[in-house]
Amino acid sequence: MDKYADEVRYRPRPVIALVGMPDVQATLVSHLSTEDPSRFASPPHHTSSSSFSSARPPPSSGCRSSSTPSPADVATSSPSESASCTADELSTRPEGDVALPVREDTASSLSDGCEGTRARFQVTRFSYGGNTPRRKDKRTTYEGYTPAGMLKLSWLHRHVTSFPSVLTVFISWEDEVENWQNKEIETLAFIDQARQIILTKNIRLLVVLVVNDIDDIKPAIREQKVHNVAKHCNLSERNFVFFSRKTPKDCTVNVEKHLMELASQYYMEEAKRLKKQKDLISKRSQPQLLVRLYFKIGFLYEFCTGFTLAIKYYRTAYVYLREVLRERRTYAQLIEVKAVADMLNFKICKLLLTENGIQEACTQFQKHVNTWQDMIGTPHREYEHWDWLSSQFEVFGDLMACANPASPNATPGVLHAGYYYQAAASYTQERRKQAKRIYDEMSRVQTYSKILLECKKNGSSTAFLQPSDVYFGQRTVRSPVEVEHPLEDVQDQLPIAGNEMADHARVLSLEIQYDYSQRVIRLLEQTFVQYSPSKDTDLYVALEKSEKNTRLLLYVLSQIADEHFRSARHDIAQRHYKRIESTYIAEQWYSLSCAILNKLMECAIQLKHTAEYVWTCVRALEPGVTTSATQRRKHQEMIASVLSPLRNQSGLPTLEENVVVQLHAPLLEIGARFSESTVAAGREVTLLVRMVSHFPLAMRFSDLVIEFNDTSYNVNLSDGKPFVCLPFEEVSSESVDDESSMLLLPDIAKVYRKTFTCKAKGTLTVTSLLTRIGAYSAGITLLLPTISADLVAEDGVLEPETVPETTKFVARPTLRILDREPTVELEVQHTPPALVNEQYHLQVTIKNGPENLLDSSLLLDVQNFPAEKVFFSEVGESGECTTVEKLIQVGALKANEVKKLDLFSRCRYISPDRILLFSLLYKTDAFETRAVHSVASPVCEPLECEWTAFSTKFQAIATQSGSIRCNDPFLLRLQVKCKTASPIGLLSSEFQVDDEKRCEVISSTVKRLDDGSFTDVLETVHMGDTYTFWFKLKPLQVGESLNMGVVNIRWRRADGELTFTPEVNSTFPVPPILVTSSPFLVSVITPSEGSVGCMLSLEIHIQNLSYMLEDLSVLVKENDSFVFAGVKRASFKVCPAEEYVLRYNLLPISAGQVRFPKFIVKSKRYGNDIVDPKQPDSIWIRPAHQRLSSCQTVRTVGV
């Protein structure tokens, strides 16, 4: 959008005028609301490191200007561009003006401030004493009137800068309270003076009444005064508004509202006035006038807030443009019509995009292009038409880039700005093509050739190409001759005579001097940035970040490189081509890569870069890139030429540096394999390398470098002969038969061998292969593709003397190097299985070989079991076990010496598949290695325990049934069963209470000595034998899962070979026990003695201590000693925390020690007798003649 003024990127601003009180005007303008810049505020031109400045001239064409372009401007702009630029008034959305009848410095400051902050209104100078513009008298008829042009520039200029829509008068009412009558007269006079100014125009009037504080005036009084003034002035009260100095910001909002309303009324009324003239114009004979009329109406509607009507009338004006060219017209008229069509299309598209009508804007632009793309005009000025088309696409691309920034996932198309930038570049290239064609044709005509030669030698002036000052789109060039109708296909070159011939020669001379490549590059860079999702201005960075559109971006980049190449900027073109070629080769686009490589060769020749030329030739030699055999031979001969100073006939300097080329396609097919897949350290192994050259000519390579992951193995193969490049028929058989010769024939395989000794244990891998052509300091290094272990397809041993078939060679670039074969033997004696927590005896025997060991150490490790849960111990000379680390220092051993070590391993967990590893690390005078021995040592549980609880009457009870009551003793039995084949000697056992407040051990079957120690040996058990321990416990606490304690059993193997076999302590925890409390408290009250025939009383008190309703039953079994009176069998309920009493009367009928009747009270919930069986079941009864004691005994039993 450089061809348009900057104001086109902002919303339009209505024109207003301010009169009186400059200080209040300044305050008002400073508080005017600003608007955010529109999406068209800045043209989206991007530049990169390879970009050049824009070739478009400044947008001065089309405006009234008396200046003439400088020669510098002529060199950078084409005459077609200079003549087709649009006026500022047309490219800018119309802005209203603010007239300032104040001091000039004040008005200038207000205007600058308003423009800088993008206020909503335009400010212009205005004064009472100045000349007021008057409206021109309108025609009453247009019959017979033929206009000289369509759009007058003076009309545009007046409505943008001279004619305000609203005149705003500021009147001070700050002291109106005291002198209201004088103030009213002064106000009326000031308003009448302002109305005289706008008498000749339809300008709206707004009176701003300035007060100190609006709250000081009562609303009723304020409205009354405004009503009186408005009535005397014949104005509406809406034309008056108050402005308070105390609250200027709030008042400015109100003033803005009135200004916008009045300005909209003005422009809409002006538009309606113009609509009435359309009936006076003939649609067939005066289409120019209809274009002018509808453009004016649309231009006025554009001042208003909505754009619908503006778009409508702009489109109507655009339709009538085709009517202008229905009859035979001149080329100048065609230029004017296309310029107006350009401007109208720009207006329509910009307004549609402002309203988010992207699809409609694209449709409008396509219709615009389809309408005018065939109207070329005179053939000898065809290049101007292609420049006009290029300008259309570029401007619309700018609009699309501002209005519709493409998302990273957007698909390129007609809704993408990059499409239009690329089309603009294509039309610029067509413009260059046609200009060159026309120039060549005219140069062959003697009359034209002299003028062209003179213009090229002395330069030419473009003053005759200045735009007209009267009508938009017209030029001041001399009147041309008539040409054929633009819609007709004109093939013949029309003769040019007189001054026009000289003018045309000057124009064509300037056109040829124009830098087309600069403009094309700028447009293509814009295309690249728009297609790039990252929108990065650096082309290479944008390409790296792009995940989509890669092919499209590379194509655009190739077009940019072509333009740089055409304009002789070969260094930039070379950089772009190399970036494109790397992607094409990597993705195997060989046909495209071949064309790029040819361009790279031409760039290297032009820049005299021998190294770049050699690099490019090698890449072009890769199979699939260049298909022509002749061309491939030529490339190889050129490489040989620059490598040989005495035979260099390439025209390039001799190569003086090393060129590194990374091969992608198999120009050199190479594979490496070891003769064996695994080998022990110290043994020899053979590496075979197979090479197949796909160069078109036979070539002797300087050397072959094989690099390993261990650089000490790196190999350099060379035959020591100089570089040579020969055709097949010149190669001697002797040089080919030599196995060490580096001379390779085309497509014939050759195998090289290298034997070396493996050093230390590890993995040896061929990491890279490279070969050199020529000298080390001035030659070519070919980096071959990295060999991967994925190429290993088969295993086996390849004999060194066996030469692989040329059609089958399996790559095996990895060799596994094992430890040296040990000279020391390890033996381990043990008795499996190992038992949990046992000190398991292991006797390790080290038998040294014929060499002296300088130092040795035994490394202990465990497989199939967590190593941190295994503990090792070593038996010293004193017979004590000492915990050791996993590494035991053995020390030096003499030749054939035997050394034994007694070790113990302790494991706390069961492991059926545990394996113990013994590694002896030793060092001799010549090498270091290790001897490894492994033994299976499963771990199992030695003893199995079983717990059983019994009542004191030896009735089995479950530990979680609730039958165990607090403070009631019970019996606990532990049965220990042997599970191992080795006999176990039980040394002692002990019941260890966790908490003395929780449980008390009453007795056990373990006997203690007087000193408190256990007996030495309890029992020796074999596999399947069982040993039983009894414990009588008394729980002291109530709980659901009480841990009473553990039983510790001390044992050791009974068949141990060592007298000092360590003892083992196994712990067996008591299972959790549920201990409950007594739910009832039972009190039995009986007399201490009685007498025959004397009545005795007995009471049973039952108290429910639980939180539940309990169902109880009572049953009394009588005997012959008493006569019983009371409830014999009954059921009853006892509520929580309540007491129930059973009362009985007993009459003794026999003397002596007699038994009471049996009282049985049972709980339905618990099912047992809640009366303590320990209660007295008998009483002493005296004979009838003895006196009874009056005392009674109360026994309380709690169950």
Give structural attributes.
alpha+beta; 7-stranded mixed sheet; 5-stranded antiparallel sheet; 30% helix; disordered C terminus
How would you describe this protein?
The chain is of the alpha+beta class and 1199 residues long. 30% of the residues lie in helices and 26% in strands. It has 25 helices and 53 strands. The strands form 14 sheets. Strands 7, 9, 12, 13, 17, 18 and 19 form a seven-stranded mixed beta sheet that branches. A five-stranded antiparallel beta sheet has the order 20-22-27-24-25, with no helix packed on it. α5 (104-117) links the parallel β2 (99-100) and β3. α9 (248-275) runs antiparallel to α10 (287-301), α11 (308-324) runs antiparallel to α12 (331-354) and α20 runs antiparallel to α21. The two termini are 106 Å apart.
Q: How much strand?
A: 25-35%
Rg, Å, rounded: 57 Å
Termini distance? 106 Å
Please tell me what the overall shape is.
Answer: flat
Number of E-state strands:
53
For the residues shown, what is the average pLDDT? 77
Write the layout of secondary structure elements.
Layout (H helix, E strand, L loop, with lengths): L15 E4 L2 H9 L40 H6 L2 H6 L3 H4 L7 E2 L3 H14 L6 E2 L27 H10 L3 E7 L7 H18 L6 E8 L7 H15 L6 E5 L3 H28 L11 H15 L6 H17 L6 H24 L3 H15 L9 H22 L13 H27 L2 H13 L40 H15 L2 H16 L7 H7 L4 H17 L3 H17 L3 H18 L2 H12 L7 H15 L15 E4 L5 E7 L3 E3 L3 E10 L4 E3 L2 E6 L6 E3 L6 E3 L6 H5 L5 E2 L4 E9 L4 E13 L4 E5 L30 E5 L6 E5 L4 E2 L3 E9 L7 E9 L6 E6 L5 E4 L2 E3 L8 E10 L7 E9 L4 E9 L2 E2 L2 E8 L5 E2 L6 E2 L4 E9 L5 E10 L5 E6 L14 E3 L4 E10 L3 E4 L2 E9 L10 E6 L3 E4 L3 E8 L1 E3 L4 E9 L5 E8 L4 E4 L3 E6 L4 E10 L3 E4 L2 E6 L14 E5 L9 E7 L1
Parallel strand pairs: 1-4, 2-3, 4-5, 5-6, 7-18, 9-19, 21-30, 33-42, 44-52
Antiparallel strand pairs: 8-10, 10-16, 11-14, 11-15, 12-13, 12-17, 17-18, 17-19, 20-22, 22-27, 23-26, 23-28, 24-25, 24-27, 28-29, 31-32, 31-34, 34-38, 35-37, 35-40, 36-38, 39-42, 40-41, 43-45, 43-53, 45-49, 46-48, 46-51, 47-49, 50-52
Helix pairs in contact: 1-5, 9-10, 10-11, 11-12, 12-13, 12-14, 14-15, 15-17, 15-18, 16-17, 18-20, 20-21, 21-22, 22-23, 23-24
